[in-house]
Amino acid sequence: MTGGPEPISAAGREELERELAGLRVEREAVAATLRDGGGDEVGDRADEADELQRGDDLDRLDTRITEIEGRLEEASVAGAPSTDAVGVGSSVTVRFEDGTESTLHIGELANALDATLVTADSPLGRALLGHRAGDTVTYDTPEGRTTAVVLSLG
């Protein structure tokens, strides 16, 4: 990635917004189970451990919520994906070494339901980032090193 604000695809934005909504609901449920802290309740160590665990869960949820909000804000600043060079959010058509061609989408989040999605941190995704139409990229696969030619960005 470029180190600056990175664009995000519409599908990637939807996925992050869906995750954010779920995290906010989960956070509200966890927060509701925490004690006020002002009571003189006497509990055993198990109660204290449960309370600490819920506090840790709340911290984890808050951290992820902040990360997603920051990423969505960054994507808003970045604007639309570039059509000059492959980046996060790009749609790119490539020809693989075996002659097959495929249009792929470069994203941040893996999605098992989208066979055309390539994450930016996968071997192919990393190889494609920053390249333009006509460039040949080399990347590692379980079968060994291979190449692909960037045909177009769209």
UniProtKB/TrEMBL annotation:
Residues 7-77 form the Transcription elongation factor GreA/GreB N-terminal domain. Residues 82-152 form the Transcription elongation factor GreA/GreB C-terminal domain. Keywords: Transcription, Transcription regulation. Coiled coil: none annotated. GO terms for biological process: DNA-templated transcription elongation; regulation of DNA-templated transcription elongation. InterPro entries: GreA/GreB_C_sf (IPR036953), Tscrpt_elong_fac_GreA/B_C (IPR001437), Tscrpt_elong_fac_GreA/B_fam (IPR023459), Tscrpt_elong_fac_GreA/B_N (IPR022691), Tscrpt_elong_fac_GreA/B_N_sf (IPR036805). The keyword Transmembrane does not apply. Residues 42-55 have a biased composition (Basic and acidic residues). Pfam families: GreA_GreB, GreA_GreB_N. Gene3D superfamilies: Transcription elongation factor, GreA/GreB, C-terminal domain, Transcription elongation factor, GreA/GreB, N-terminal domain. SUPFAM superfamilies: FKBP-like, GreA transcript cleavage protein, N-terminal domain. Residues 32-55 are annotated as: Disordered. One of its GO terms (molecular function) is DNA binding. This is Transcription elongation GreA/GreB family factor. It comes from Streptomyces nymphaeiformis. The lineage of its organism: Bacteria, Bacillati, Actinomycetota, Actinomycetes, Kitasatosporales.
